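<amino_acid_chain>
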Amino acid sequence: MAITLTERAAKHVQRFLAGQTGGSGLRIGVRSTGCSGYAYVVQPVNEIGEHDQVFNSHGIQVVVDDQSIGYLNGTEVDFTREGLNEGFKFNNPNVAATCGCGESFSV
């Protein structure tokens, strides 16, 4: 099981974490929401719990809680810029469908 970052995403996270106090990596998870069921949650890691799994990708610690790993296993996270918009893009092989707005997914 693994969650990986593209090199572009890792560089973005490195720049972001350099401006944070105490952030040691990137926490990725899912929460119930939206019309399709789940949405991604991305935030800096301040501490690693006993129910977290830690992956290293391009020098970045990627932390995923035990409840989210089943939804995220095999996911590659990229950072994209399209026009004036930028953000993380999740290439998740577990997704069965996404909603029309692209903010939530189902498995």
